[in-house]
Fold these 4 entries.
Entry 1:
Amino acid sequence: MSDPVQADETKPASLSQKAMSGTAWSMLSTVSRQVLSIASVATVARMLGPGAYGIMGMANILLGFIVNFRDLGTGTAIVQRISVSQQLLASLFWLNCGLGLVLALVVAGASAFMASFFHTPELTSILCAIAFSFIFSSAGIVHNSLLMREMRFKSLAIIDVSSALLSYFVALACAFSGLGVWSLVWANLANSIGGTAMYWIASSWRPIFKVDRAEVASVMNFSLNLSGFGLVNYACRNADNVVVGRMLGQADLGVYQMAYNLMITPIQSISSVIGQVTLPAFSQIQNDDQRFAAAFVRSSCIVALISFPVMAGLGVVADPMIRALLGQKWIAAIPIFQILAPVGVVQSVQTLVGLIYVAKGRTDWMFWFGALSLAVLIPAFVIGGHYGVAGVAKAYFAVYFGIMLFPGFAVPLHLIGLKVSHLAKALLPQLLVTIVMSLACLAWLQMLVHFSISNNWLRLISTCVIGGITYLAGLRVAKPPTIGYLQDVMRESENPMFRRGVKFVQLIV
């Protein structure tokens, strides 16, 4: 039997240095992918319009559901476990390849039903084509997990950006060629194939032809509960899309999904920077609750330092932003995004609590909380659907803040002995400064209206500048402890750029 692959027994400072270096690369990756996302919205979405995105939204309802079964949580199990054997890695590789083939057949088999359900015949061929992506992506799951386990975030960043760049150019070329919704289909396949190929190049691990049932069984309790949560979380995230698509049609679904994606993309981008880095780090300190709780508070505060002003600011500038970037076709998305933006402010931090469940190995708690959330959301969306797209967005807002918010924090924080009030107190300074910034931006927009200034780009850019200045000024006055957290981790970084950045942070705040 081959030797197990042990987690690095690093000292706290060394772990912090790895985490900080990882944050730098993850941040670079995220910023680059955000730029590509904006470019895609400003070019591809403008050419294709809501109809094409609505059709892909319908396809994504099935695809997103199937993705939850892609690795049955085994990829995360590789990152979370203290040690993994070569037999386990090989067994999970072949398991995932088999699952990829099965899931591709399921997607192709279900394509006709989805086309009939949404009254959209072209869904059949679209889903059959995208089904191949499961075969390709499944072959890269173990390699991706090993890169993350080894905290090789530079390699992961390069792969993520390269895949996104390839996907964007394929979509753009196809859109210019007049392929319509198929531009998004070919972009999806290019991303899967390119990403998997690069994971294999970056990772030196190669599978052996062996499947050890005992090794697979050893991770199944953790993995199946995590996969089960992914399933119910997917249902929570897409129940509103099903309601809108079924009750209101593809055009309204395209509008709703655009607004929802504008809300969720910054959240996922910002939290993924921290989440990708902190999961392997948290897993190494999973048995030290005091250290875990302190690290979680620091991570949450650093996320909030960026995500609070970004999400609130996007809500404030929603009108000029959507008009300038997307054009007149997407004006209906403005009020939807404004309703969802406050949810995004809080969810930008709440997305991190999933790391507690995973690092502590309590994916069973994670699954059951997700199931209860789904039971609350579905009837709310159905009721809201009778009042149009805005009704669905308002239902999401009401249920989230009225029912789900407090337990969504309290349950996972209990696992590390952290009170909600302690986390809230740590986040309060960033929240107050964000509120002041938002009020200043709203006042500025009203002044532009008073002086009849209607150029959308001028309104967008000037408001962003005012917001940035106000937020930095507010941080100088409030001096939240988060600034100290940020400076500490920057000092520990092995990257000279980050160490020099400490002085820059001191200068601006």
Note: The chain has a mean pLDDT of 82.
Entry 2:
Amino acid sequence: MRALDLLVIAAYLVVIAAIGLRISGRQRSATDYFVSERNLSWWVVCFSVVATETSTLTVISVPGVAYLGAWGFVELGIGYMIGRTFVAFVMLPLYTRGDLVSAYQYLGLRFGPTLQGLASVTFLATRLLAEGVRLFAAAIPIALLLAGTGVQASYFEIIVVLAGITVAYTYAGGIRAVVWTDAIQMLLYVGGAILSIAILLGSTPWSGLGSAFAAGKLQVFDFHAHILTSPYAFVAAIFGGAVFTMASHGADQLMVQRILACKTLADGRKAMIGSAVVVTLQFALFSMVGTLLWLHWGGRTPTQLGLATPDQLFPEFIIRDLPPGVSGLLIAGILGATMGSLSSAINSMSNSTLTDLVHLFRRREYSDRTMLRVSRIATLVWGGALVGFASMFTRTDDPVVVLGLSITGYTYGALLGAFLLGLWIKRANQRDGAIAFMATLVSMAVIVLEVRIDGNALAFPWYVPIGAAITLLVGGLLSLSHAAAPPETMVLRTPRMEREREG
């Protein structure tokens, strides 16, 4: 009977690749390849942003977190709303007032090429690690399903197949194919969550929800957890979540590139703030799945259920308790989440490679056709690199969603801090920014790896605020060691602004 599930999954993979190739159109330049000539509707960009940040980490890990605890990720989502509102009104105007296709072009305009290059390399390294975790996470339910049919496939083999299909339509279609397939895949996995809730409610008496509430399983705000070691403590979730999303959606090319494909600044703001609302609702959906699973299995631990980690709870329900065909549809939704984030990562990494490294340091002009060819070559290279990094993550004792968010904590503080340094400390120059950036990366490595509070690691929502504070402190102090630059040297000159001034 599980052959039907495999058929559904195979059909999904073929259809989504065909859709991506069909709607991609024909790219004429690297700008078209990366931001679709800025003509995408805000709502599809909003869905693409949500699909990009969701991935398998949310789909399989948030139910596991809610199963063992409560609805802490919904609380985190409220912090996201605050942070993305700041990004929409403070940071987006920096990108949309010129011909920028990369977030780090702003750093190049404000400080110089050195800091732009440092930020780009840091972004690329972060994406390799974070997307490696996401790609590995997608292999978990597929391996379980294949084992149930008697087929033994390694995580690496599954990863290669998923990455190969995703790279194919990303290579051919660019950002247009990425955004539209993201939107379709988001609808699929959200529909899977709603279907799971409906099935679980059908087998769970309503009185069970009362017992879940009494056990604290529906709790959103946690005022009692340790503020520094629990990511779901109220202050850590709201304040830390707000600053975290300021970095992830305001200083990470992965998200900024999507917003730059919108038609206007107003549309970009709608997509940015709308994504926070949608992702919070998603957190609630998948948290409800976790709570209902807790009722469904009588509160037994993952170990008692014969599972190695809480990340296997939702996949196990899909495979064990859903009818054939329906299981395949939900696993296709999980694959959609991963392929959406993976295609976005590959495209944005190619963009940053071209715009922040190749374009910045090239010694002569290249034709649009040549730059488009380089963009596609970079897509292939980064796709292969992500497969290699994903194979590194074969075992973890933590939920993969926490691991993925922790990885970004090493670098997000430095990235956000560099932007805020340029905005708030006018006398800071390139030397100040570069030294502060490197000092933050070193400091965060020590903090993340070594700092323990009562034997526990610092909660990941605090990584970005601490990193940004270090960058601002070091950069601000260094700026006092030299004379302030003349006001005219601090005026940002984008290509569009120069053309308008000359015309």
Note: The longest strand covers residues 452-453.
Entry 3:
Amino acid sequence: MGRRAGGRAARIALRQAPLADDARAVRPGMRGGAYRPLSDGQLDDVVEAALGLLEDLGMGQATAEFIDLVTAAGGWMDERQRLRFPRDLVKAAIDTAAKEFTLYGFGDHDGIEIGQNRVHFATGGAAVLILDHETQRFRESTLQDLYDLARLADTLDNIHLFVRTVVTRDMDTAREVDVNTAFATMMGTSKPIGTSMFHPEHVHEVVAMFDLALGGEGEFRRRPFCKANNTFVVPPLRFAEDSALCMAEQVRVGMPINLLSAGQAGATSPAALAGSLAQALAECLAALTCVNLLAPGHPCVMGLWPFVSDLRTGAMTGGSGEEAVLNAAAAQVVNHLGLPSGVAAGMADAKLPDAQAGHEKGQTVTLAANAGANLVYESAGMLASLMACSPETMVIDNDLLGSVNRTIRGIEVTPDSLSTATIAEVIDGPGHFLGHSQTLAMMQSEYVYPQVGDRLSPDDWVRAGARSAHEVANEYVTKTLATHFPQHVPADRVTAIRDAFPIRLPPQG
């Protein structure tokens, strides 16, 4: 008994000791790509179909600047006023485009390296409802909710990028929405962030605010810590004018862009999953071509977010098997082109963090990540087919993301890990591996442990209070929001921002 107790104490001590990032069992940027829903021939077919769509049908509602750029490079406007993209022009843009880039964190945060099958988990969405952690009822989301969700994500290791999760329903104008969304997101976390803008002039205001936060004009361009989510397209194959205008300004200010196409299979894209994938790829390639004609090599993510419908009702379904395989295929086809990829997964149709949410999130996030998506958006906190966000769900999803990241890593097979010598030592010695040096050495470097998930025996669980994961997560949320107020932006710069912009978030902490 003494030997077993001593081994347990050693294991507890090692579990509590911090590890360097490169020695942890999981970390940002684990390399995926083992899951391949499409064959090489099928990948080529999807790419050819997308190129054909752009050459034969083109894009409607192009901005004047994009028309000038594309026609000067060999494209043309047809009799239906659609901008046509020759295959060779699009292929040249693929060759020119950035294959990887750094999205920095604020200040000293190292940020993340995007590209080359490196997988990162991000939030995202434009939920209009919050599942209030105090009342457990849905209500309209606010600016305070956005800031609180950013603060929460700041403490969760397996969320690598915080992108705006909820809409600030309490803001009065588009300018207030854009400026305050960027401000609250930046103030809530030092991790890399993402936001969006309604109008092109707001792009310059947001970057001016970021420059103030960083300490001087041009600092954001030197070290961009925020990525724009730009839904530039109205499927099928039409530019969204204001978003396209914003895209051009985002290029000019040096802001990385997620070129986001979100057609819904059976509604705004074909019900056939391959057709939906081809359309999304064509739309994103059109935007990529325009961006690279404007500024070759500007950092972009190919944000293929092909959604699917429940064809019985036409409603969007974010947690289906079709959604899971389609977004995994989207990551695969973008990686096949050597471009940075971003897809959506974790968009549970469930309204509560329950068993339905768990299985929907588990299948969609696992497939997207193992397909090698560089950014898996919507991966934490989302419920009700993106209509709602839940703080407790974000905490529970953090456990899921750690486990999924461990599946990406896989199993390393080496002479040491095959453990033949260790097995011999145990057979000749204590007869178990509990206190062995290999076991102790691998506690953190090989294994991932849940933050709220329970692994006690039933009796021990009852003695500990018989709490559900939701109850444990609620306690974590309540404590974190009462105590965690990031201070990475110097106070004098925050004051300058408040003096210069219509900031509606009250001082915190």
Note: The first strand starts at residue 30 and ends at 31.
Entry 4:
Amino acid sequence: MIKYVVILGDGMPDYPLGELGGKTPLQYAQTPHMDSLVQRGETGMVVTVPDQMPAGSDVANLSVFGYDPQRYYTGRSPIEAVAMGIQLDGQDVAFRCNLVTLSDDEPFSKKIMLDYSADEISTPEAVQLIQEISSQLGSDTHGFYPGVSYRHAMIWRSSPEELNCELTPPHDIFNQEIGAYLPSGTSGQVILDLMIRSSAILPGHPVNRARLRKGLKPANSIWLWGQGKRPYLDKFMDKYGLNGSVISAVDLIKGLGICAGLTAETVPGATGNITTDFTGKARRALEVLQGGKDFVYVHVEAPDEAGHRGELETKIRAIEEIDEKVVKEIIAGLQDFPDFKLMVLSDHPTPLSLRTHTREAVPFVIHRKGAGLSNPRGEFSEAFAAAGLFFEKGHELMDYFIQNNRG
């Protein structure tokens, strides 16, 4: 039985940068193990975000998992809610509830989005704040649920049949005045009222007073976005005949896996940023395969977080850590199996110059055990992959990866 592994570096692709001599961070980073896969495998580009759909990790990873977003996508937050163990009925709508840092300007519409993650607030601090929001703003209609770091959930129970609101991801409006991006639509006022009320509750909380004393940004407001109802995916086993697991620090990827009938693994020390336990994820992937699973999807968020924060050195380091501590480790461990296929790719670019996602095609490489040297000068980069295979429909790449077992 062939073992299948997908390693996804979130947000790795980027634009050429003058300070890197015209190279992208992916080209500039030292990635000998990804390069080796290209030299002994197939490489190309894949479009993971269909036209007219939001360029988010939800849409893109749904494509990479092998599901057509135009058929299955219902929103980001309900996927995360599934991973958090929140039960959603047919009329419930889930929202991502970020803890953010806004400026002190008044009125609310004049505030600036200073940080979409409140300095990547710790989970214990965040839980206290969400519990306070729940006690003061929660109701039979609106429930607040703590998650990890700045990422939480709000559920609108038995929502109106035609819930109509336009919401903006906070990471898209870094350092911008929020007035033009506040909730709109017939249901938007309810959402806006919750956000405004939270901004009166959170600043004086002991957690935020302590953060200010330490020189950290306060989590002084919630920001609601990413709404949707529970998705229903065909089971991965039914599609591909494989049982498997997902390994990620973020609820979005865990939720996608759970919806597809995969197991969401827990890795102590997995944080979703550059401090994550890269090696721990790789070793857990190998343990999953040794335990009898046929497929594992390893997601690493760190390059995306660095892109959103505009941190060039951190993004390069994250790419190199993935190469050295995830790709190298997994390649070595896979040699113990009679046969395997390994795919490395990203979900979308997160250009440092924009600090948000874009919809351009991303590079991928597929390697099978025993493959000979085919691209001796190959490298894992946007430019080199552009001369290879091309998948216009992202969800078809997984079909190709699993079902095309030549060579």
Note: The chain has two domains: 3-73+232-403, 82-228.
